[in-house]
Fold:
Amino acid sequence: MTDETSPTALPDRLSVNPRSPYYDEEILAKGVGIRFKGEEKTNVEEYCISEGWVRLALGNKVDRKGNPLTILQKGPVEAWIKGAETN
Structure:
């Protein structure tokens, strides 16, 4: 049995933080692209498509526990698996 029934299926919410309940290492290993308000973003820490928000990292700034500082922004979110793109 293979799990390739839907190779481009992404969860509604995904996080890059391993301590988050929305973290999925298998999907992140494939490479996930995020487009927010029509612009591709590379600094997304977490997203939610249904609620329409992304959590963006603020440069190299970290809190006292070493976690990146983030800002929540609302707007249309699109996500795709980068390996599934056809050229």
